[in-house]
Fold this protein.
Amino acid sequence: MHNAAAVQAASSVEEAFRLMHKSLGRIVPEFELRMKAEIAFRINRLKREKNAIILGHNYMEPALYNSVPDHVGDSLGLARISARSDADIIIFCGVRFMAETAKILNPDRTVLLPAREAGCSLAASITGADVRRLKEEFPGVPVVTYVNCYADVKAETDVCCTSGNATAVARHLFAQGHRAILFLPDAYLTQNVAAEVGAKVVFPRLLGGPGADAIGPDDRVLISWKGTCEVHEQFSVEDVETVRKQFPDTVVLAHPECKREVVEKCDYSGSTSGMVKYVRDVDAPRYLLLTECSMGDNIVAENPHRELLRLCSHRCPHMNQITLEDTLDALEHNRYEIHLDPALMDRARASLDRMLTIG
Ligand code: 13P
Ligand code: SF4
């Protein structure tokens, strides 16, 4: 059972503290855990009173992740859960594009994001107007966008994807006979998916690339954009080699937002939940996670017998904005509510529905 479920059933602050201490005692200092347990207890009580659910991304800090979410997971898993929710209020402990996704799938429910400015460098890299210009350059080419984008981009999209199903979505479209796919906006995810499906990566003229001139009659092509994740782009081949020199038996896991040359050096690449499952299921002397650092703490809390190495200098400043304190404020004051234009949501929903059907 995910630790948070037991904490949510606690009948007193003291019991909540005891349960949190059991899983987090080695990770969070005791005095901090006492304060966090009190806030978590209040959140869990209020959540029941207001018929709210909390969805927590795998990157949430350990005290939050292990105390208040009704569900935790990656972008794909949480999107699926939000689509099935019958709560009056959905609080998304993640970043804005994730809360927008939940709102698009639940237009009649209140969706709250505890920190107003929890953004994402990938989502900020592209606009709906950019996608319209790309469609003019490549008429008739299907548009796949990574779910890390805002509603105006989703509204211009044929199929969304996440790190959990990007390859499946590309394969699906190639199997339907498409030879080229606009695959936006993460340049590194596009390279990693292209390698998996045997496609070539081409940059559009809009970005100074060769565009359609580089697409031969027998090519399978992913047309890329210039977005990058400000966290994952920092991991290097040297990082992997340095750790392997010291600990040759380390199993290295990388998120597919990492550069292609980094992913090639790794033993596994997958979504955040894919990595969680890998460490849970595959025995290894030690693991190195190339992703946001908090997730490593959450994996250690769940698997105390596993030894994890992490490079904690690379943190997501957006995910880190979400705290237990803000989550309590969100619940008490119904903030910050996600508002989107209903017509835009209808167009954006079609791309998410197709994603949920394909993979
Ligand atoms: P996942 O979909 O793998 O959880 O990734 C989301 C994300 O923002 C990773 O940086
Ligand atoms: Fe965006 Fe990267 Fe942060 Fe994920 S880790 S939310 S992709 S900036």
User: Anything to note?
Assistant: The chain has three domains: 3-119+319-333, 123-228, 232-310. The longest helix spans residues 30-49. The pocket of 1,3-dihydroxyacetonephosphate (ligand 1) is lined by residues 58, 74-76, 148, 162-164, 229, 255, 257, 271-272 (CB under 6 Å).
